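User: I'll paste a sequence; please echo it back and then give the predicted structure.

Assistant: Echoing your sequence first, then the prediction.
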Amino acid sequence: MNRTAVWVAIPSGIIVALFVVLLATSESGGDAGPGLVGDLAPQVVAVDASGAEFDLDALRGKWVVVNFFATWCAPCVQEHPELVVFSETSDPSEVAVVSIAFNDSPEDVADFFADNGGDWPVLLDESLAIDWAVAQVPESFIVGPNGRVAAHVTGGVTADALTDAIADLSGDR
């Protein structure tokens, strides 16, 4: 093996080993999103894109859709109008939406929301994706009024599916 191959192989091996250790020691045992269902939602305290303080615990008593997205992600762009419809047709005293941008600049996020709508907190703290064990965007979590993760959705969501899921989870059906 030549020296270049060794210098590439060693760091690569270390990164793979660290990833395996992270998965083996994570609370959800590496079973990303579904491992959170039933658990208290991970803490979310951050500054939103407008500069306001945000604390997920302040929304206790409401259903909260926590949506991880990226402006460069085609399925995320596709689902965004559905989140807008869901937000606009839901009772704000009972339901809230929070988006967490992944690998995006504040400018791109601001432009995206200015162009596509959406009037809810948008957080730019990528470390939250680790806390929620997000594997890829889009991913959404429905947090119940009790602060527990009630459901996890990988891939895009629709307004109707979110409305139906919350109705089912709350026993309104």
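The beta strands are 45-47, 53-55, 63-69, 95-101, 122-123, 139-143, 149-154. The chain has five helices and seven strands.
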